[in-house]
Amino acid sequence: MNHRKTLKTLTGTALAAVLLASGCTGGGGSSKGADAEAADDPSQVSGTITVLTHRTDIVQDGTMKKYAEDFNRTYPKVKVEFDAITDYEAEVKIRMNTENYGDVLMIPAVIQKNDYPKFFASLGTQKELSEKYRFTGFTAVDGKVYGQSPMGATPGFLYNKRIWAEAGVTDWPTTPAEFLTALKAIKAKTDAVPYYTNFAAQWPLTQWTYVNGSVSCDTEATTALAEGNPWGADGELRVGDRLLYDIVDQGLIEKDPATTNWENSKPQLAKGEIATAWLGSWAIIQFRQAAEKAGADPDDIGFMPFPARVDGKACATANPDYNQAVSIHSEHKAAARAWVDWFTEKSGYAADNLSISTLKDAPLPEVLKPYEEQGVELIELDDTAGGTVKNIDSASEVGIFGPAYRQELVDIARGAKDGDIDDFLDDLGKRWTEAEKTVGS
Amino acid sequence: MRRARLWRTLTPWLFLAAPLTLLIVFTYAPVANMLAYSFTDWDGVSPELTYTGPDNYVEIFTRPELFQVFFVSGYYLAASAVQIGLALYFATILSFNVRFRNLFKGILFFPYLINGVAIGFVFLYFFQDGGTLDSVLALFGHESDRTWLGSPTSANISLASVSVWRYTGLNFVLFLGAIQSIPGELYEAAELDGANRWHQFRFIIAPGIRPVLSLSVILSISGSLSVFEIPYIMTGGATGTETFVIQTVKLAFQFNKTGLASAAAVVLLLIILAVTWLQRRLVPDDRVDLV
After folding, report:
1. In angstroms, what separates the C-alpha of B255 from chain A's closest C-alpha?
2. What pLDDT is stored for residue A13 in this prediction?
3. PANTHER family of this UniProt entry (chain A) (predicted)?
4. What is the CATH number of domain A155-317+363-441?
5. In Å, how far from its chain's centre is CA B288?
6. Which CATH architecture best describes the domain A5-150+322-358?
7. Which residue of A has its CA nearest to B255?
8. Looking at this predicted complex, what is its ipTM?
9. For residue range B77-95, what is the model confidence (pLDDT) as tens digits?
10. Contacts of residue A96 in chain B, CB cutoff 8 Å?
């Protein structure tokens, strides 16, 4: 009996302790509103900084180390250490609950925009920074900027020029209908898979959300997402999703989407076994490298904008990659800031990745030269409502930044799931607009 | 004298200190945390969280579509029946003297030792169009032209059979251990009485391993309700293969509704406890007495 009583009290105390401990999670945020100011004299900046990055590949092959060595020529007293994280989003999300998330990090998508001042030091006012840099609006809260993307990309179709030419299509399609006709020609005249969904890898389907802005050419397209119905009669996402549906519905995709393979799709597109895929300009370099490895011609890989024209002109949105930010808990904010600025301006990272530079006056990368020739306008969306869009997305559980609803859409299109596309899109719109009311401003 | 008695009382606790610490830190503390979160609107990162009372639970029970995914568990439930049958069959055969007995034991148990993530990837290739399964079928002259993960029914059956492949070994080992604890004289006596192998199984083995058998059934039912790894890695819940746990993970990590997801996890825990309790009521665990 005696033993049993001890056991009870003991577990009782333990449980109480556990409950107490669980009550203490969270906290922090006391140093809200710190600034990471740029130093005037590079030789005076010192300290060891840790940079969290998702680019495990270039940390492993030593490219990052070379950047750091270059950086040390200007900032000799700063020591840069890299922490490459494979499952970046998930792992950093957990670390954000502590104070130990590096000095410089890529802002995880999960952090609410309005919470940026609680986690990151400000880099300056948007008014001032936007004179020199693109994408400042994407991380600005109350006029202050909290992150800076070292490069930008534009969404578009990667395609194999040789296959498209073999099918007799040389001009870029200008409407979804023309695009479908082109894919049909490819199916009829070549052995290539006209369009590759990358269904199994899931995230490539998410890329279709970045159609936003290309259809209407409106820089306020994100605000329209937050205030209207993206799947309304001429909503941006309806146009994009409808095109995806039609492509699948008309059998213009790979035979078995459920077992697609992202890594294999790169050489396949390079060799002409796949004709087209909706991705982003960031992917071009990966496909070119895959082409070289597979013994195909890297120059076969082309890039075209979404088939929509406003007054005869195509629009392509320039979007930031992961934004680099300085941790509010960093003890070497000046050094961290120096790295962020240097990496954006001087490292050559954007050029190395064939990407759009963050600097406004830098020329377009060579891969986007055809865009210049054909008069494609590069627009930057106003992201003031970006935070609200994310809130609506979570509240409605639609998931425009996740793969689930487009997987369902593909399943409906290929008959693996019962349903009607119009009902499906209308239902998304209904859930979205209902969530708009609950989320508010 | 009193000191000695004090030590006598303390000693068992000293031995228990390490496992109890581990148990509390890694099992009960997270569960307590989860319970606490299930009453908040926490999004998983924000330093601020507000207490919302039972709102999350109300939401779960007013959204019937959240429970639809339990139909998928039916496939895995059916698969576990097959799995237990197979395991029982092999355990019975291999408990007698068979050539290469140990080799077969190893082969059967091996899949259970492989990491679930690796299994998911291997079977993705297996079910691929023109993949392993199609080529094997082609060897037998069956030109298959179907997408195994293409439709909800065939995808769920494919995934459930992967689960059978993986877990049969575990059941098999449990059964084998139980069968081997049955005294050998019983078989001899039974043979003298003219019992054949089937009779031996029916009247000696089956009742002899009843506790383990009912444990396996409980494990497979709770396992079927909480399937996660294999469908998550292979299809990510697409094409009608979403299970309750995948749905919960999506709520927590895709829609950042950690509070709601915690509540869903608590609900799943309660469902599993209820099912287990019901089963214990229906099939009471009597003591076995063969001799």
Report:
1. 4
2. 39
3. ARABINOSE-BINDING PROTEIN-RELATED, POLYGALACTURONAN_RHAMNOGALACTURONAN-BINDING PROTEIN YTCQ
4. 3.40.190.10
5. 25
6. 3-Layer(aba) Sandwich (3.40)
7. A394
8. 0.80
9. 999 999 999 999 999 999 8
10. 45
